[in-house]
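Consider today's protein:

***
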Amino acid sequence: MARDRFTPDFDPDCGDAPLTSARQDIVIGRWQGLRDLLWVTGDDWTLRGHRVRQLAQACAGSSTVESWLAAEPGNADAQVLRAATETARAFHLAISAGRGVPIDRDRIDTAVLASLHAAEACPEDPTPWVSLISVARLYPTGVRRQELARWWDELHRRDPYSVEGHLQVLHYYSARWHGTHGLMYDFARDAAGVAPPGCPLPVLVQYARVEEYRYVLDGARGQRGSVSLGQHWDHDGAVNDVRRTWERWVRGRPDSNPAPTELRDLNHLAHAACLAGTADVAASVLRLLGRRATRTPWSFTGDPVQQLTKWRKEFGVRG
């Protein structure tokens, strides 16, 4: 009997079935499913952030969140989702405009004000502060250093090990936005250095390596063939970073199937491990993932399906 051909599962919700159900409600303009989902999510900040981000992407092209707010203007969860939705809308405009082309400042201000209102409505929730730091990147010159530091302090006080919160600061500090490669890597390594065993923060260094590659790719006008993968991904520093993340995060996490909130991070580590040639780490993470995959970061270095299929075969991963 022929062995089943490997087909990665790029579920945008990463296997979060309740989230998928709620997102389907958005298609028909029904907001009650969003309210119920965020209510039961409670103060699991990692899961809440994952769900709010995905719901915001789905709400960005509709008026569902506005309908919810009209029906329940005092609902704090609706305020949090609206802030994330306005942030998503601002980024969609920026993507449509093209890199380096500023968008209407009023649209950025709208997202900032929505985030500040959400932070007041839900004072214990780190999610509005993540939205705030995220949309700050869209100001042509960023925001004042003191302002960013204050927002970061508010987020860090509520959720000190938030991968998404750290990731938004990392993006802000990157050379593609308002910083430098050195500033970005310093931030990533400092965060990894204080993370307890089993915490995913060490993977920030792999996110930083992707950011640096994207910066180089932008300079090459998207021509991957003119960018040397080897020089970027498999030097000693990159290999050591992969092994350090594996030791400090994956070997310290519970021996369980990945949660939906872990899939993107694990794909970044798998991607880095494959390109660094660390066969043992790559094979272990690919086995842990199974068929579950996220399109990024694979899409930055080629076709995601082809790459996943190739590396699984090369490292002897079955199933």
Summary: The two ends are 15 Å apart (CA to CA). The chain has 16 helices and no strands. Residues 76-97 form the longest helix (22 residues).
